[in-house]
Amino acid sequence: MPLYSTILAFDTTGTNDSISLYHKGATTSKALPAGGSQLQSSILVPSFQALLQDQGLTFKDVSVLATVSGPGSFTGIRIGLATAQGLLIAGGFRPVVPTLLELLAFAAAKGGNPNKILSLVDSKRGDYFAQIFMPDLAPCGEACPMSIAEIQELAPQMTVVSQAVVPISLEVFIPKKSIAELLIEFCLEVALTENSSRYQTVAPFYIRHPEFKKQKRFLEEK
User: Fold this and answer.
1) Whole-angstrom distance, CA of residue 113 vs CA of residue 123
2) pTM attached to this predicted model
């Protein structure tokens, strides 16, 4: 990957949304203001434009567009991927779209840890979306919802990584960098070093269907 390549990365799946720009060997990042999905849908593209303009660039200078496919906020995932698809159609960039679980595992693996990695994303419903990876990021199975009790049982054998504190009595690795910054590093160290389309599918990664909560409530009322 040549140093002059330009990567635009962003994340809208959670509560700490962010954007990053890699250009000529340097990364510039910005946190997006909190305000929910309605705000993000209106400011996302203008935020990209402002970040590019600060470097004297436009969308025409971007060679790679990176985001995450989920899991996370259903609306946030839709906004992010719809924006990515629109930009890809207009600009013809190369997409890089790992899951958030893959990206967190990448962050944990960067230190050369030899253990398996248990990657966790808070579902905000009392459990976690989880997936186990080898140190080389090969998945050890499918992602699935996991209870705190199940995490507690598996955690002693693995490196646990999450975006925030997990209520278990074991050490949890929490990346200090924003998701958009990690996406830039993931592009440079993993996705763009492989001659494959493994991370190029622009599609939502839902572990639960978006109507899961509504369906569950309906069944309980019946």
Assistant:
1) 26
2) 0.89
Q: Please tell me whether residues 72 and 131 are part of one structural domain.
A: no
Element (H, E) at 20: strand 18-23
| Predicted pLDDT at 133 | 97
User: By mean pLDDT, which of 49-63, 110-124, 176-190 is the weakest?
Assistant: 110-124
Asked whether the predicted pLDDT for residue 57 surpasses 90, the reply is: yes
CATH number of 45's domain? 3.30.420.40
| 167 and 192 both lie in a single domain | no
- Distance between CA 2 and CA 188 in Å, rounded? 9
Number of domains in the chain: 2
Q: Let me know: does 43 contact 101? Beta carbons within 8 Å.
A: no
DSSP state of 9: E
- Residue 162 structural domain: 100-173
